TrEMBL record:
<dbReference type="InterPro" id="IPR000873">
    <property type="entry name" value="AMP-dep_synth/lig_dom"/>
</dbReference>
<protein>
    <submittedName>
        <fullName>Long-chain fatty acid--CoA ligase</fullName>
    </submittedName>
</protein>
<comment type="similarity">
    <text>Belongs to the ATP-dependent AMP-binding enzyme family.</text>
</comment>
<feature type="domain" description="AMP-binding enzyme C-terminal">
    <location>
        <begin position="441"/>
        <end position="516"/>
    </location>
</feature>
<keyword id="KW-0436">Ligase</keyword>
<dbReference type="Pfam" id="PF00501">
    <property type="entry name" value="AMP-binding"/>
</dbReference>
<dbReference type="InterPro" id="IPR020845">
    <property type="entry name" value="AMP-binding_CS"/>
</dbReference>
<dbReference type="Pfam" id="PF13193">
    <property type="entry name" value="AMP-binding_C"/>
</dbReference>
<dbReference type="GO" id="GO:0016878">
    <property type="term" value="F:acid-thiol ligase activity"/>
</dbReference>
<dbReference type="InterPro" id="IPR045851">
    <property type="entry name" value="AMP-bd_C_sf"/>
</dbReference>
<dbReference type="InterPro" id="IPR025110">
    <property type="entry name" value="AMP-bd_C"/>
</dbReference>
<dbReference type="InterPro" id="IPR050237">
    <property type="entry name" value="ATP-dep_AMP-bd_enzyme"/>
</dbReference>
<feature type="domain" description="AMP-dependent synthetase/ligase">
    <location>
        <begin position="31"/>
        <end position="391"/>
    </location>
</feature>
Length: 535
């Protein structure tokens, strides 16, 4: 990359250069390195199960042997449909040991959502729990998939034994080999597989380490990361890789339950917490949590969705913990911007770009002309963490990646000092509790109801979830349906977080002159009447 000289570089911590050297490694190489350097250090705590780094590497290697014995080949795609757990971590690094691709699958998905991802990715392996056999059987691809039970993955019998077989040499080009297919949305609202290479994900580990760990003088090994963000999400997945590289102890929990989280904090005293807004809101509202409980935290960050400024202020006042805001996307592995851990922080800002990262604001019409400070335009980004492209989707790739720049679809501004602010989205995506919800996906389900003539799904402000999903519906003439009936219809077909929290039955929907439903009008109406989400 050509040497950058940007306004924001003067706000870097003194320990952080504008550009860093990034090694060309595989993701498995992170685990292999830490097992060599920190063999007896604790790598993972999952309830009453714990593993050292050497034990974790050995478990990943044994599972890799199992996959190899079954015929797993380099570039095979393996769908992992698990919550945060030790099995996910073992399967993730075992897959990378063999040069395979991890297809990220939300364990909350219903069969229709799973069916789409399996079809699009062409996955030929599937790791899930026994109860997920039923949902897998409903898809069109169950017969072509090799199902591996997560319950059996941890067994020490012959099925997973090392035997005498040597694993094949890991022969990949980290800059070209796709490590993860991370499904996300785009301009069409249709979910797409973001191709993240080993080098994309490794780059973000080293960028994050240079920008935060060096400045805070975090220890390698010695830190303890509270890993609550879902591992199937790019934010949680990236933080796992960072923890493994640093030799930290990754403390995880299958499901975010606030009382259990508080117990984890009090028991294990984590030092690093990458969270999402709903987690911080839940901690803030916990009746028994005190500043003394959280004094163990050295570094807290918020990702996946904006955290309201008032929440940040209340959190700092009550619990005396600073939450650093940043910005990232599935397409950027994920982080591109962060408020500095030392020095000038600006509430409401996503901060400044990471090392080796360039960013600018361009005009919304052509996307070519860079705008001066203070003017609104589209945020575009360039850096080693930017995706390779969208899986088997050259049209969307060409739209998003132009002349080496990623066009984010986010409307933003940059101030005179190089701090960036997100002010809106070109896309219609809804971010509810940190999860991405794409209106067209929910609309497709609602349209399946025999009483529905038209529908439009959109996000409305929510003090707890950031945004919540709302559906406006026009019924067919002579048909009737209650709100509870339509909600139950959605519950049976969608992951819970995608189900609209409220429904509005209308005589007609706002439309343009050519008959296009104007989602923007409904969103503006919803903004004027913010809701409070159910817990």
């Amino acid at each position: 990359m050509k040497k950058l000289t940007r306004t924001w570089h003067r706000f870097y911590p003194k320990e952080t250069p504008a550009e860093i050297d990034i090694p060309v490694l595989s993701l498995y190489g992170l685990l292999e390195r830490s097992a060599r350097l920190y063999p007896t250090c604790k790598a993972v705590i999952d309830g009453d199960r714990e593993m050292t780094y050497m034990e974790l590497k050995d478990a990943a290697d044994r599972f890799a042997v199992n996959l190899d014995n079954r015929g797993f080949q380099k570039d095979d795609r393996i769908a992992i449909m698990l919550p945060n757990c030790l099995e996910y971590i073992i399967a993730y690094y075992a897959t990378h040991r063999l040069g395979g691709m991890v297809v990220q699958v939300n364990p909350l998905y219903k069969w229709s959502e799973l069916d789409y991802i399996l079809r699009d990715s062409g996955a030929n392996w599937f790791i899930g729990r026994e109860v997920q056999r039923e949902i897998l059987a409903l898809t069109s691809f169950s017969e072509r998939l090799t199902f591996i039970s997560a319950e059996k993955l941890m067994e020490t019998g012959t099925d997973l034994s090392r035997e005498a077989k040597e694993l094949p040499v890991l022969d990949i080009d980290p800059k070209e080999a796709v490590a993860v297919l991370q499904y996300t949305g785009g301009t069409t609202g249709k979910s797409k597989g973001v191709m993240l290479t080993h080098f994309n994900l490794i780059s973000n580990v080293f960028q994050d380490f240079a920008f935060t760990a060096n400045a805070l003088q975090l220890q390698s090994p010695g830190e303890r990361m509270l890993g609550l963000t879902p591992l199937f999400h790019v934010f949680g997945n990236g933080r796992l890789n960072s923890a493994i590289y640093a030799g930290s102890t990754y403390i995880t929990l299958e499901k975010f339950e606030i009382d259990k989280v508080v117990d984890l904090i009090r028991t294990h005293r984590p030092t690093i917490f990458p969270g999402v807004p709903t987690m911080y809101i839940a901690l803030l509202n916990h009746p028994d949590l005190t500043a003394d409980d959280l004094c163990c935290f050295k570094y807290c960050s918020c990702g996946s969705a904006p955290l309201p400024i008032e929440i940040i202020q209340q959190f700092e006042k009550k619990l005396r913990v600073t939450i650093l805001e940043g910005f990232g996307m599935s397409e950027t592995s994920p982080t591109t911007h962060r408020n500095p851990v030392i020095g000038q922080k600006k509430q409401g800002s996503i901060g400044i770009p990471y090392p080796n990262t360039d960013a600018k604001i361009v005009d919304l019409k052509t996307g070519v002309h860079e705008l001066p400070a203070g003017e609104r335009g589209e945020l575009i980004i360039k850096g080693p963490q930017v995706m390779k492209g969208y899986w088997e989707n050259p049209e969307e790739t060409a739209t998003a990646l132009r002349d080496g720049w990623l066009y984010t679809g986010d409307i933003a501004t940059m101030d005179e000092e190089g701090y960036f602010y997100i002010v809106g989205r070109k896309k219609d995506m809804i971010i509810a509790s940190g999860y991405n919800v794409y209106p067209i996906e929910v609309e497709d389900i609602i349209y399946q109801h025999p009483a529905v003539k038209e529908t439009c799904v959109y996000g409305v402000p929510d003090s707890y979830r950031g945004e919540t999903v709302k559906a406006a519906i026009v019924l067919k003439k002579g048909k009737s349906v209650t709100e509870q009936e339509i909600r139950e219809f959605c519950v049976q077909r969608l992951a819970r977080y995608k189900v609209p929290r409220s429904f509005e039955f209308r005589e007609q929907l706002p439309k343009s002159a050519v008959g296009k439903i104007l989602r923007r009008i409904l969103m503006e109406e919803g903004t004027q009447s913010p809701t409070v989400g159910e817990r």
